[in-house]
Specification:
The chain has about 700 residues and is an alpha+beta fold. The chain folds into four domains: about 1-40 and about 95-210, no CATH class; about 215-385, no CATH class; about 395-520; about 530-690, Jelly Rolls. It contains 25 helices and 19 strands. Strands 7, 10, 11, 13, 16, 18 and 19 form a seven-stranded antiparallel β-sheet that branches. α5 runs antiparallel to α16 (about 295-320), α15 packs antiparallel against α16 (about 295-320) and α16 packs across α18. The two termini are about 55 Å apart.
Length: about 700
């Protein structure tokens, strides 16, 4: 968001200079702030602090009309806990939380209209609805539905002789919202971007929902036993609260309640499905209290509860029909449920002191544990992020490894580009563009999503990189596990990067944190000729397995062990390792000419730079001639625990000692355990034979 707002603040235009799916309201607001103050991450965090303070203040004022000061204070306490558990929402500037604040403001203005009858309050409420829709269209639609229902109940709850025409009330509500939409549409129409706005914010979302497999809520059953889905790698990333994943994952996984009980699984499923029960009980509560609509004081209380209930229900219906359905997208919508729960708790316990004391006794221990653990998470969030990122566009605290990574990447970009040059950051990590103050080469290059917003997106990005002579790419290996790998969903763009760029530096400083690389543009074709020609059919492939004689790999199994591929960022021969004391061996005959060198490189595919359980991989290059064998190269990589093993490791060995002789070159891979027996665990950059007379690719190659 910061990068896109910065583009607008500098005179750019959304949907022309940056592709995004939400409507532009929250971006414009941040851009306005950036026009008056130096853009920085710290500034955006202060905005969030102000937003949340205002949000809680408004909610306290709302609750005070429905509950006693004690229960209102409890509601505020729940909201403070909610802020921690909704992480990263209400910590980072977001169009979601900005929209929620604006839309709750519209609800408060409508309640003011109910109390005063002043239609200008209704008009202001409609204006904020329009602005809320402009920040996030689906939240805005939910709020508009909730307000419309509440307004209809308000109109028809009055005696017929006092009843105001509902149509006139809807005009007061909807006209200001429509004017916001019309002004926005007119602006983008004048820019020639209205069709792009509609495509990106409406049509693409609908098509993506229909064609892309987003995450869904976990199944309710089994409810009281450990659910393997929730404990899988994908389940942890999808359903575990983000604050735990960020600051306490390892310790949490060692807790008795996680390892030996189903408490974690049951609580998570209550979190996902509990709102439906709460809303059902709320609907029954409203139905039973509908008699309060007959007189003014009861009507105001009923409508105050109804508007929040309607918004909560609309948001839950929205996420039930919309996707992705995960912890992150549901947690931020929990605040109206917490407020309703506070109201219902007072209603339940009013006049039932004994029941209140019993519930207090039952809940005091779990509540204390919840508050204590939340406090631990908040404290760890502060202590883990212990290093100050002093760059003028940062100003925040991050983890030491993140600080080292960000400083390294930003320094590299600034040292190797000028402010008017473009830098591509792929597939998604636009904070680098913001911190380095560099634009991307194309509007779709900041975030390359699995669902292409343009049918020829990949080609457009590569064409823009050529036209603007983009010489630097920052590539983010840390990709969402719920998405396919970048090379699978953007194969054309990935192939372009492989053909035109190579890794210059790797930035990775902890086990499973961010892993980035800076790429530089290559010049010309590589030296020499491929040893194996254009495919991997040449050469003899065999397996040497512990306790068994060596066996040849039959042709129909060959592709399981050896396959040409494109890895970040070289063409490779993926040679699947063999575990134990065995190895997989590719033997290639060669007539060695004088001065010949063999060049290659080895790596573990970045997808497996962090893998649990882990496995090292050993690469060996040997030459056999006239019955004699010599090891030309050997290296063991263990990237899960040895961060220096993350990257490409070049091979350049002289074969001049075998000039004029027929030799057998043997490329072999072995691994520590069965988990390492994957093609992506061992890659040889396409081996090339280079002789002094053909430093660049030459039609004549090795015999």
């Amino acid at each position: 968001m910061l990068q896109f707002a910065d583009i607008v603040a500098k005179g750019g235009e959304l949907y022309r200079d940056a592709t995004l799916y939400p409507l532009p309201g929250a971006f414009y607001f941040l851009a306005l702030i950036f026009k008056f103050f130096e853009p920085s991450i710290l500034l955006s965090r202060w905005i969030v602090v102000v937003q949340f303070t205002l949000f809680v203040t408004l909610l306290f004022a709302y609750l005070r009309h429905l509950v006693t000061p004690l229960y209102a204070a409890i509601g505020v306490g729940l909201l403070l806990l909610y802020r921690i558990w909704a992480f990263p929402h209400w910590h980072f500037y977001s169009y979601s939380t900005t929209a929620l604040l604006v839309l709750f403001g519209s609800m408060m203005l409508m309640l003011r209209f109910f109390e005063t009858g002043n239609r200008r309050m209704l008009g202001w409420s409609g204006l904020l609805v329009g602005l809320g829709i402009l920040c996030k269209q689906d939240y805005g639609a939910a709020a508009l539905l909730a307000l419309s229902v509440t307004l209809a109940v308000y109109a028809y709850s009055h005696p017929s002789q006092e009843r105001r025409p509902l149509l006139a009330l809807y005009v007061w509500l909807l006209l200001p919202a429509a004017l916001v939409g019309a002004a926005t549409g007119m602006h983008f129409l004048r820019q020639g971007l209205l069709s792009d706005l509609i495509q990106f914010t409406v049509l693409n979302h609908l098509v993506g929902m229909a064609t892309f497999e987003y995450s869904s809520f976990p199944p309710l059953l089994p409810l009281f036993v450990q659910d393997p889905l929730l404990r899988s790698e994908l389940g942890v990333l999808t359903y575990l609260p983000g604050i735990i994943f960020t600051v306490d994952l390892e310790a949490f996984r060692k807790l008795f309640v996680y390892t030996d009980t189903a408490v974690y699984d049951t609580v998570l499923k209550v979190f996902f499905y509990g709102p439906y029960l709460l809303l059902l009980s709320g609907a029954l509560h409203l139905w039973r209290g509908r008699s309060g609509l007959a007189e003014a004081q009861g009507r105001h209380r009923f409508l105050r509860e109804l508007v929040l209930f309607s918004f909560a229900a609309a948001l839950i219906v929205l996420i039930s029909l919309n996707k992705p359905q995960d912890y992150l997208h549901l947690a931020v919508l929990y605040w109206p449920l917490l407020c309703l729960g506070t109201v219902y708790a007072q209603t339940l316990l009013r006049g039932r002191r004994t029941l209140g004391w019993v519930l207090a006794a039952v809940l005091v221990l779990p509540a204390g544990l919840a508050i204590g653990y939340t406090s631990r998470l908040a404290w760890r969030l502060r202590t883990i992020h212990s290093e100050h990122l002093s760059d003028k566009r940062a100003g925040i605290y991050v983890t030491p490894s993140e600080a080292r990574m960000l400083r390294g990447v930003v320094d590299y970009v600034r040292a190797n580009s000028t402010p008017d040059e473009t830098v591509a950051v792929m597939p998604y990590f636009p904070i680098v563009n913001f911190l380095s103050d560099r634009r991307g080469p194309h509007r779709s290059s900041y975030i390359v999503w699995p669902f292409p917003e343009l049918s020829d997106r990949d080609r457009r990005i590569s064409d823009a990189m050529e036209a603007k002579k983009t010489s630097i790419v920052i590539y983010n290996f840390t990709q969402f596990i719920s998405f396919p790998p970048f090379e699978e969903y953007a194969p054309e763009l990935f192939s372009y990067l492989v053909e035109h760029f190579e890794i210059d530096r790797i930035y990775t400083y902890d086990a499973w944190g961010y892993k980035l690389a800076s790429l530089r543009r290559t010049t010309g074709a590589p030296d020499g000729q491929p040893l194996l020609g254009t495919d991997a059919s040449r050469g003899f492939l065999r397996l040497e397995e512990e306790g068994s004689p060596s066996r040849a790999v039959p042709p129909w199994e060959r592709s399981q062990y050896l396959a040409p591929d494109r890895w970040p960022f070289r063409p490779v021969l993926a040679l699947r390792p063999t575990a134990g004391q065995g190895r997989t061996v590719l033997s290639v005959p060669l007539e060695v000419v004088p001065g010949a060198h063999l060049r290659s490189a080895v790596t573990v595919n970045p997808r497996y730079w962090f893998e649990v359980p882990k496995s090292w991989v050993r690469f060996t290059l040997e030459v056999e001639a006239d019955g004699d064998r010599e090891v030309l190269f050997s290296r063991t990589l263990d990237p899960t625990v040895v961060f220096a093993d993350r990257g490409w490791f070049p091979i350049d060995v002289s074969l001049d000692g075998y000039a004029g002789r027929s030799v057998l070159l043997e490329f072999s891979t072995a691994c520590e355990g069965p988990v390492g027996e994957k093609p992506l665990m061992a890659g040889w950059a396409v081996p090339r034979i280079v002789v002094p007379a053909m430093r660049r690719s030459d039609p004549g190659g090795p015999a």
